[in-house]
Each structure stands twice: as C-alpha cells, then as structure tokens.
Amino acid sequence: MPPEANQPALAVENLSFRYPGTTKNALESINLTIKPGERVALVGPNGSGKSTLLKLILGLEHLRTGSIMVYGHTATSCRHRVAIVPQRAAVDWRFPVTVRQVVMMGRYVHLGWLKRPKPSDIETVDQAMEMMKITHLAGSQIGELSGGQQQRVMIARTLAHDADLLLLDEPLNHVDITTQELIFHTIEALSTAGKTAIISTHDLGLLPVHFSRVLFIDRTIIADGAVSEVLTPETIARAYGFEFHGKPEEKKWLNG
Amino acid sequence: MVEWLIEPLTYSFILRGLAAGILASLACATLSAFVVWRGMAFAGDAVAHSILPGIVIAYMFGFSMFIGAIGAAAAAVAGIGIISRRRELQEDTAIGVMFAGLFALGILLLSRVAAFQDLNHILFGNILGVNQSDLIIMALIAAVVVLLVLLFYKELLVTSFDPAHSVAIGLSPELIRYGLLGAVALTTVIAVQSVGVVLVLALLITPAAAASLLSKKLSKIIILSIIFSLFSTIAGFYGSYYMDLSSGPAIVITLTLLFVVSWIIAVIRNRIQAGKG
Fold this sequence. Notes:
The complex is a heterodimer of chains A (256) and B (277). Helices cover 34% and strands 21% of the residues of chain A. With 256 residues, chain A is α/β, with parallel strands linked by helices. In chain A, the strands form two sheets. A six-stranded mixed sheet of chain A has the order 6-7-8-3-9-10, with helices on both faces. In chain A, helix 2 (99-105) packs parallel to helix 5 (147-161) and helix 4 (119-131) packs across helix 5 (147-161). Chain B has helices at residues 2-6, 12-37, 41-50, 52-61, 65-85, 91-113, 116-124, 132-151, 153-161, 163-168, 173-214, 218-242, 247-276. The A-B interface holds A 20-21, 55, 58-60, 79-80, 82-84, 86, 90-92, 94-98, 101-102, 105, 108-109, 111, 114, 141-144, 157, 161, 163 and B 33, 37-38, 86-88, 151, 154, 157-158, 160-165, 167-170, 212, 215-218, 221.
C-alpha cells in the first residue's frame, strides 16, 4: 500500500484497552499523533501500559475501543511498514538459529510465501550486519552471544526489514555502553532519513541526549512534549506515582 | 551378513512392517526438532495418548483406524485450544485435562471390546500388523508432513524464535502452532502402528534431543534426527525379527542408546574445547 501524503506516522484516537479476564483498563483514552521522522521516548513505571501500547500498534493484541492508524492506514493492513524489537523475554534466545538467519527474518516480509532469498536480500542482510558490527558473528547460534550482541542482531534485523515505523520495547536493558551508543547512532541516522521510532525505556538520563519528544504514560498520557518541557520533577513524580515534596536537595537530583 | 539382512524381507508382511516403521520415523524425526525446541514435548505426548479412544471406536464400528485416530486427535487439539484460549488456565493444564480424560475413555472402551492382545498392540505397537491400504495412507501422511515442514520452514523458524516479529510481518503464530500440533497428531497416528501410543513420544523427542547435543544449527539437527531415527527403526526391526523382541521398545531403546552416545560425544568435545581455551 502506498504511503499517503502528509499523513502522520502514527495516529491513535480514543484508545482504551482491557485484557480479557481483568477488571481494570490497561490503557485509558489515549490520543496521540507522531509525525514521520520523530524519535519518541515512551516512559512510565512497570505495568503502565508501555508494552501494551506497542503490542496494540503492532496488532499483537486486538483493538476493541478507539483507532490506530499507521501512515493513514489501519494498523493491521500495514504490516510491512512496522518493525518491532520486542522485550528480551519475548524472544526464545535458545532456539537453534544463527545470527544470519535472524537478520534474514527481517527480509521475510519482502519474500512472501515459499520464496527463497534473492541475492539482493542477502546483500541487504550483509549490509545490516556490517552496520551493527556483527559480521564476524554471522554463523554463531544466537544464544551464544552476549546481551548487547543479541540486541545488535535485533537492530540489524530491523534495518533489513526496512520498515518506516520502528517500535523498540526496552531495547537498552542488559546492553553495554558501546552497543547503546551504536543503537542510538543507528536510530538517529534512520530518523534523519525520515523513519519514525518509538522507544520505551526506564532510563530517564538518556532522554535529553537522544530523544526529540517524550511520552510519559501511566495507563493514560501523563505528559507529552519536548524533553525540556516534559522532564520536570513534577511530571516524573506524577508518572511514577510518588508525591514530590519539592525539597531543594531532591530537586537537584531530579532535574538532572 | 547380506543373507542375514535380506532373509526377513522375503516375507511381504515383514517388508510392509519395515516400510511402515521407516515412514513413521521419517515423519516424526522431521518434526522432532520443532517439538523439542518449542517445548512441545508434553503436547506431543498428550496428542499421542488422546487418539486411543478414536482407534477403539474405529475398531468397534469397523472403519479405518486412521480416521478414528485423526478424529480423536482433532478433538484433542481443538479442546486444548478452546480451554486455554480463555487464559483462566495455563495451556499445559488444559493439555493435561484433555490427555488424561481421553486416554481414560480409550482404556475404558477398550476393556469392553477387545482382548488383552489388542490392547498390547495399540499401547506398544505391532509393526507386523500393517496391511497394504494402511501403508498407502501412512505414505501419504508422511509425505504431507515432510512437505509441510519444507514449505513452511521459514514460518516455523520465525514464529518459534520471535512471535512478535512474526505478527509484525503478517504471520499468525497461533495458526502455525496449531498447524504444527496438527502435524504432530498426524505423525502420531502413523507412528502408533510401529511403536504404540505409549512410546510415540520417544520418536518425537529423542532424535532431536540427541542431534541437538551434536549441532546447534536447525537444518543439521533435522537431518541428524532423521538419520538417528531411521537407523533405530531398522535396528529395532531386525532385533525384533531375530531376537523375538517387541518392535516398539526395541526401536526406542536403540534411539535412547544413540542419545547416550551423543551425550558422551558432547561431553568429550566440551572437555577438548575447554582444554584448548
């Protein structure tokens, strides 16, 4: 499906969601618009609905109330345009696949059923591995790698996928500093090229350096805006659900 | 030696038995790597036990054992799906309930209609009881299973490793999972003839368990599984002919010995590598 001109990368309207068998909404009245090329940090405490929101955008959970549009199309009709780096626990790292096979999975959406990879697909995979500096690991079983290396493989797969909206669910957990920098460098290069990225994270210290926009959520949107506007002690306190007393010695730490 | 190998094959019913065993072990070994690495051992065992009432009902009403078995397997897989979909119970709980219930029903029915000898054949296999039409159905099922794995290899790989990514690219991990359970059910149906309901699990698990000790690459694991499985079936078959052993246990014991040998090779190899490092 062709991209429609001047459409937001992501438009969420009146989204509420409740998991079957529970009594409380996991997400409540979410409205947000993200433009192409934006780099958005999704921040909130555990259980705040960060992962749920990403799963709904991807179609991993079924939408019941509200709407999600990706580049002007309903999210589920737009499969090839959305890529995910899931939370570490959602991947079976012990499964016997090699690094090259995992990166090639990024090309599957372009291959279609029953088709084998073309030379151009193999070239794309080689380039993606090169960019993430994992070429020397191509033949290794994914489970033999360190956490940082595994996450580079997932980013390489996203590069090979060549999607327009990238969803990264806590990609920085258990990742070394070198890999962290490499991941941010890659995401910055992608967003300069017009791709959109939504990255959930717990690391508030990273926000001023690497993101153009921050979305604080705790079941609903607590704050949304530029890093400098949003990253205040009051919003952090509201998002994480503790009372901020405004003592000068605390303010110093919270304001980073 | 050659005569020793050829002698049993001069009887057509024995030849059919060997062919049946080879078909069953080929189909099981092809699926084995996925059953092992996706953690479906319990589901596979459950499906194997669940087909018992289907076989007995087919026996009672005189229609094909395969149709009865496939019907019961489909009912078991659907039941597991329906119970676990509500998320109130874990899937292995749903599997356990279906498994025990259907197996009990099978035993109860069997005790009403059949002699002990029949029970023995269904539970532990009777490789020499295969007729011509059984063999044709078995060949068809084995061909379908191997073809499905070849055609959907990519899809099996990605849904096993990362379900979220497979949804992102438009695949349904649920559909692939049920497809795989269905294929396990089909192979179980043909393997019952050679090893019986109780030991089918060995053909589904042990080949890839042994192969995974020797290789970490899925395609190699599958090929090694097939080699181990065929070797065990043929060895078990001759053992059963010359030493008057029950075919099922003879095949499973050979497979288990191959697992032990693989284990020893893996331990020695790790020692050597550790020594080098």
